[in-house]
UniProtKB/TrEMBL annotation:
It holds the Pfam family Hydantoinase_B. Transmembrane segments: none annotated. It comes from Jiella sonneratiae. This is Hydantoinase B/oxoprolinase family protein. Residues 7-530 form the Hydantoinase B/oxoprolinase domain.
Length: 651
């Protein structure tokens, strides 16, 4: 039996009913929201028990949100202890109270039965602007929260299901799109009411005591299941490190996030000791999102279990105070997603050693493009806020290639935004969106492919652009001998033809009608030695345009001859392939240890390209000037040696 007070059938019905109630919250938000961002699934929901612990998440909730919602529910409870009433809805977006960043605004509704709070419903949505110094509220130069937007500590937003218009107006009119904000408030509040309706329906059917028992029992069930699986693993310690590209306010060199995972019996401990102190940008993570990164990364290896606070009881995290993974008020944290995804991929790497059947290499890094100003296509010149993200490639897996053009590990429930909707709402025209040949990280099982999107500004005034990304230097990596993908970074072409690579992190750059911006997303890292990939698979990749004929030879050692490219007819030269693979095996370790400055010189001279620089030589450059970045190269080579070179069979 799942719990001695519940028979197995009732337990199973309630477990799934709780999840369905949360999914129905999501459906309500999707159908009534005002924001195009929320409409494209940048939202999550949760059902909590009377203690604020998470009892159920939905089936498509965003990974980054899942481990934070119980923290914000409990912060609301602390602020309004003894002062909650039926029909109340509270708002909070405070990252220092366990949230993510100011853009993720949560609405929390207590659910009463018989005059007693038995549960809480919570709806979290990403508002496309919450004020601050730049449109979209992502100012990469911010070192403190005061340039990031409006911090909402717990506040009563609805009483007796009626909106407090004064409070709502105060919040909304401190943003650049108040009408949408008010609409999203109403949508999220109604979503929590849907959950309330479903829980009270269950109360009517089974009784209040049974529902309260069920909310506790589902957490106990998940905790037992996770602990049993952990206990079946060997005790031990595993360590890894991943990097943020740089501190924009500091010197050259990548920013380490170090994790040591320890299994003792039926518990896992994640120790972040040795991680870098907070940096002079928004790329810092408060405790809540660090916790969530661990939860989401680990949950990837337990896909069959529901997610609730029972899962969280099975692990512990240790974070150094004041580090990049434990930023405290008033340190800027809007760009928390950059350390978040490094944490997730690090968790993937360590659990891949324990569960090789589920192993996967590094995924591409989520990127955000934020463009705002005045839309001059109509006489009224209304304000617009273009907030976009792109899919990319996931890492190669043990026995399977990585997923192509998939939304980021940050939140696989998110959708790639349709350009038709974007063009209707914003004076921006998409002129290109296609898969990037050679973007997948090479491996016995290659990474998934990334893509490139190019957009042109139309009639507009006073427009600025910001770009929030990473892995321009800490390039997406492979494991078990696999190779990296490619650097991220945005290129801006002005209307007069001048071109400038702005890179992966900048804010508040003025652009005008006729300017064009192009940004690629990386593929996933490769899994396993690319020289062990079946040449027939490489041939199929060439036919499908995932890999070029040139890089089939340089990365995989497979010589492919075009017969009739117009009809995708190619053939493998088996003898030349065998010879080339022997040659690469004999030389590749020396390539990975070649003098970095000589590599930079050849790149600047045009004799090698960015793929050679990263995949053969493990060198990191300023991709605009070609200048060597010595400290970043040293750091990148250190992990390249461990993840790739050490796994290659001797020549």
């Amino acid at each position: 039996m799942a719990n001695e007070q519940l028979d197995p059938v009732t337990f199973e019905v309630l477990k799934n009913s709780f999840i369905t109630a949360v999914d129905q919250m999501g459906e309500q938000v999707l159908r009534t929201c005002y924001s195009f961002v929320i409409y494209n699934h940048d939202f999550s929901s949760a059902l909590h028990d009377a203690k604020g612990e998470c009892a159920a998440q939905g089936n498509q909730d965003i990974a980054v949100h899942v481990g934070t919602l119980h923290f914000t529910c409990q912060d609301v409870m602390r602020h309004f202890e003894g002062d909650m009433h039926e029909g109340d809805v509270f708002a909070i977006n405070d990252p220092y109270a366990g949230g993510t960043h100011f853009s993720d605004v949560r609405l929390v509704r207590p659910i009463f039965s018989g005059g007693k709070v038995i549960a809480f419903a919570q709806s979290n949505g990403h508002w496309s602007d919450v004020g601050g110094s730049v449109p979209g509220s992502f100012d990469v130069a911010a070192r403190e929260m005061f340039r990031e937007g409006l911090r909402i500590t717990p506040v009563r937003l609805f009483s007796n299901n009626q909106l407090h218009r004064d409070v709502a107006g105060l919040i909304a009119h401190n943003t650049r799109d108040p009408a949408s904000i008010i609409g999203d408030m109403q949508a999220q509040a109604q979503a929590t009411r849907v959950c309330e309706r479903e829980i009270l329906r269950l109360v009517d059917k089974y009784g209040r005591d049974t529902i309260e028992t069920g909310l506790s029992a589902v957490q106990d069930y998940v905790e037992r299941a996770v602990r049993q699986r952990i206990a079946a693993m060997p005790d031990g310690e595993w360590e890894t490190v991943d990097f943020i590209d740089r501190d924009p306010a500091g010197g050259e060199g990548m920013i380490p996030i170090r994790i040591k995972m320890t299994i003792r019996g039926d518990k896992v401990i994640y120790d972040f000791t040795g991680s870098h102190p907070v940096i002079g940008s928004i790329y810092n993570s408060a405790f809540g999102t660090t916790f969530s990164g661990v939860a989401a990364g680990m949950k990837t290896f337990f896909p069959d279990l529901p997610l609730n606070s029972g899962f969280y009881r099975a692990f512990e995290i240790i974070v150094p105070e004041g580090s990049i993974v434990d930023a405290r008020w008033p340190v800027a944290v809007t760009g928390f997603l950059m350390p978040f995804e490094k944490i997730m991929n690090s968790i993937y790497e360590m659990w891949s050693r324990l569960m090789p059947q589920r192993a996967l290499a590094c995924a591409f890094n989520l990127e955000y493009l934020l463009t705002g100003g005045w839309d001059a296509r109509a006489a009224d010149k209304s304000i617009f806020m273009f907030y976009d993200w792109l899919p990319g490639g996931w890492g190669g897996r043990n026995g399977k290639d990585g997923n192509n053009c998939t939304t980021a590990s940050f939140g696989t429930g998110m959708m790639a935004q349709p350009v038709e909707g974007q063009e209707r709402a914003n004076p921006i025209l998409c002129t290109e969106m296609e898969i990037i040949t050679d973007s997948p990280g090479p491996g016995k099982w290659r990474g998934g492919a990334g893509l490139v999107k190019t957009s042109a500004m139309l009639a507009s005034d006073n427009v600025v652009i910001s770009y929030i990304c990473d892995r321009e230097r800490a390039v997406v990596w492979g494991i078990e001998g696999g190779l990296p993908s490619m650097p991220h970074g945005l290129t801006l072409t002005r209307a007069d033809g001048r071109t400038e690579r702005l890179g992966a992190i900048f804010s508040d750059v003025a652009i005008a009608e006729g300017d064009v911006f192009t940004r690629p997303t990386a593929g996933g890292g490769g899994f396993g030695d690319p020289l062990e990939r079946d040449p027939a698979r490489v041939l199929e990749d060439v036919i499908d345009d995932y890999v070029s004929v040139e890089r089939a030879a340089r990365d995989y050692g497979v010589v492919i001859r075009p017969v009739d490219p117009e009809i995708c007819e190619y053939e493998i030269d088996a003898a030349a392939t065998e010879s080339l693979r022997r040659s690469i095996r004999a030389e590749r370790v020396a390539w990975a240890r070649e003098d970095p400055e000589s590599v930079a010189e050849r790149y600047r001279g045009g004799t090698i390209d960015v793929y050679d620089v990263v995949r053969r030589h493990a060198v990191i450059l300023d991709w605009e000037s070609g200048a060597l970045l010595p400290e970043s190269t040293r750091q990148f080579r250190e992990v390249f040696e461990r993840r790739s070179v050490s796994e290659w069979a001797p020549a």
